[in-house]
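Table 4 source record.
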Amino acid sequence: MTDATLAPQPTRRAARISVDRREPRSRGPWAWRDSVALAIAWRYATHALMVALALWNERRPAPTLPDSLLSIVPKVEWIARHNYQLWFVAWVPVAVALLWKDRVSCVRFLWIGGWLSLLRGLTIPLTGLGPVDGLDANAGASPDALWHSWLAIVNPITALTTDAPHLGLTKDLFFSGHVATTFLLWLYCRPHRRLATVALVAHLATTAFVLLAHLHYAIDVVAAWAIAFSIYVVVEGWSGLRSAGAAAAGTGTTR
């Protein structure tokens, strides 16, 4: 028996985690999936399509539902006015940090986030929930008004500096995009302890802002957790290491 035989061998888990996560993983005809530019373009395009579907839903009158949680949570007006900016601060810097630290996971996060956004675009008109505050201001809105709202919302500058998202989107409720996107980001940050802590704090703060702004019903928040986690598990597995295994295979790492 040689010394090499007696030496401890790395486990499959260790081999997977040892992959340099900043390197591309795909080879051959699927290499385009590793492009950061394409992943960002996909994420933006799916967001724009989701907004279009949500605005189409704005024309339909919808009822306000009772909510036992919101009935005891006071509405904070300044949070309601700035909820979009608060989400942006919670989501974008953490996503950029994930890209710098773990390129593979961030690219996968962007692709899966796009599918999550498209699913939200479908569930909004399927459920047809009315505004939380009871004022259905956009019922019967004209196509021209909806078109201008769409242009203002998908433009990052006007979305962050004007009231376009608040005025144009009053019934984009089931499920919460703020909660789902920050929760999915935390799931992809988990292998990196410090970044995961920041992502979790950002997600919990975002969830609190959503409720304090009366932006969504409580069921929208619960559904956001359930749907985002379900999609993550389908793609990455319960352990979240499926992408690491794929990276190891793509870079030729011994398994």
